[in-house]
Amino acid sequence: MGLWPSLFFFLFFFSPSLATNSEGNALHALRTRLSDPMNVLQSWDPTLVNPCTWFHVTCDSDNHVVRLDLGNANVSGTLGPELGELKHLQYLELYKNNIGGKIPKELGALEKLNSMDLYGNKLEGEIPKSFANLKSLRFLRLNDNKLTGSIPRELTTLSNLKVFDVSNNELCGTIPVDGPFATFPMASYEKNKLNGPELKGLAPYDFGC
Question: Which of 38, 49, 108, 169 has its CA 20 to 30 A from that of 147?
């Protein structure tokens, strides 16, 4: 190959500026799933290697996407598994839109996530058990959706969780009391089909699920 072709090959595949290409692809895949009547995603140009210049996207000094702000953006559609590719994401703000469908279990791969705000949408299905992998998560707001099923007991291992709100859904079963759930107010659970806190020392029963 010679020196220069080899050098080009190395720079092309290992340049830090190209490291966000997969993140750009993930965001563009999200754009294709969303209807955007207000053109808030107009700057999301898939021909650009680096998505850090796009509106509503924030990157760190290494050009990794750390924040996605699409709250109250009047978008609709669904979320897909490609969001799990945003490995450095710390803030996922998609609140007060018309997003439906299920919450992708792949969001559980976002190990650096600090805040997830999906409230005020039309999301349905169950809360993914994979959220138990989000050990950095401090804020989880899923209220005002159409979520069903029980609150996963796996979430009681999230020791950093400070705010948890699933009010105004269609959840059933019993409310956990272990781990951080010992401190969440009952307002976090209102307007569901939940049966009240489980009793410590007894096996939980998901009445009504």
Answer: 38
Structural domains counted in the chain: 1
CB 178 within 8 A of CB 201: no
In a domain, residue 193? The reply is: no
- Cβ atoms of 99 and 75 within 8 Å: the answer is yes
Question: Does any domain span residue 146?
Answer: no
Look up the pTM and report it.
Answer: 0.85
Q: Round to whole Å and give the CA distance between 141 and 24.
A: 25
Assess whether pLDDT exceeds 60 at residue 50.
yes
Distance CA 130, CA 114 (A): 15
| H helix count then E strand count, the chain | 2, 13
What CATH number is attached to the domain comprising 75? Answer: 3.80.10.10
In a domain, 209, yes or no: no
pLDDT digits (tens, 9 = 90+) for 109-156: 999 999 999 999 999 999 999 999 999 999 999 999 999 999 999 999
CB within 8 A of 202, min separation 6: which ones?
Answer: none
Q: Whole-angstrom Cα distance, residue 189 to residue 208?
A: 15
Distance between CA atoms of residues 121 and 130, nearest Å: 20
Picking from 29, 184, 34, 190, the residue whose alpha carbon sits closest to that of residue 121 is 34
User: Is 149 part of any domain?
Assistant: no
Tokens of 126: 């169950």
